[in-house]
């Protein structure tokens, strides 16, 4: 069985008023999208888990703990960790922690569709990894 982990900011720690983030995004929508993603990965025969982190000095150790003890085939980094641009230092630190803790894993990114009625789209990640077509998350995020 292959293994994937989703790494992203804890929705409770995100300032959704930031204009650099997708308009209309909320903590509830992120949690619903993660739940659906985990379900779909499992339905596709993959073991998947989530790793929410905080945007502070605990982020790198939290990522290292999430990745310890398991060999991962892919680590998916969420949009709110990559955006806004003010998070670049955190983003780089997390990517480096992933590379150190899971050097064999592909690092992938979900795509935030910047439309008020849509949210994260994992299809490019899953197409790259050879997954069957991923369920559209937009229905959860309208």
Helix content: 25-40%
Number of strands: 6
Instruction: Report the portion of residues in β strands.
Output: 15-25%
Structural domain count: 1
CATH class term:
Alpha Beta
CATH architecture: 3-Layer(aba) Sandwich
What pattern of helices and strands is seen along the backbone? EHEHEHHEEEH
Number of helices: 5
Q: Low-confidence stretches at least 5 residues in length (pLDDT < 50)?
A: 113-120, 130-142
Spatial order of the strands forming the largest sheet: 2-1-3-4
The overall pLDDT average reads 80
Fill in the CATH topology: Rossmann fold
- Biggest pleated-sheet summary: 4 strands, parallel
Q: Judging from the principal axes of the Cα atoms, what is the shape?
A: globular
- Which class best fits the helix and strand makeup? alpha/beta
The value of Rg in angstroms is 14 Å
Distance between the termini: 33 Å
Can you offer a commentary on this structure?
The protein has 142 residues and is of the alpha/beta class. The protein has one domain: Rossmann fold (3-Layer(aba) Sandwich). The chain is 36% helix and 18% strand. It is built from five helices and six strands; from the N terminus they run βαβαβααβββα. The strands form two sheets. It has a four-stranded parallel beta sheet, sandwiched between helices. α1 links the parallel β1 and β2. α2 packs parallel to α4. The longest helix is centred in the N-terminal third of the chain and has 17 residues. The C terminus is likely disordered.
């Amino acid at each position: 069985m292959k293994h994937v982990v989703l790494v992203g900011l804890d929705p409770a720690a995100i300032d959704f008023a930031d204009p650099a983030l997708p308009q209309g995004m909320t903590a509830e929508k992120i949690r619903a999208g993660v739940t659906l993603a985990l379900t779909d990965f499992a339905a596709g025969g993959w073991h998947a888990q989530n790793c929410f982190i905080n945007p502070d000095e605990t982020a790198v150790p939290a990522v290292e703990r999430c990745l310890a003890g398991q060999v991962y085939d892919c680590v998916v980094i969420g949009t709110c960790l990559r955006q806004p641009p003010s998070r670049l230092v955190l983003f780089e630190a997390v990517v480096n922690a992933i590379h150190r803790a899971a050097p064999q894993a592909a690092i992938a990114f979900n795509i935030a569709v910047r439309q008020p009625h849509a949210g994260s789209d994992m299809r490019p990640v899953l197409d790259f990894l050879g997954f069957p077509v991923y369920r559209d998350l937009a229905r959860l995020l309208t």
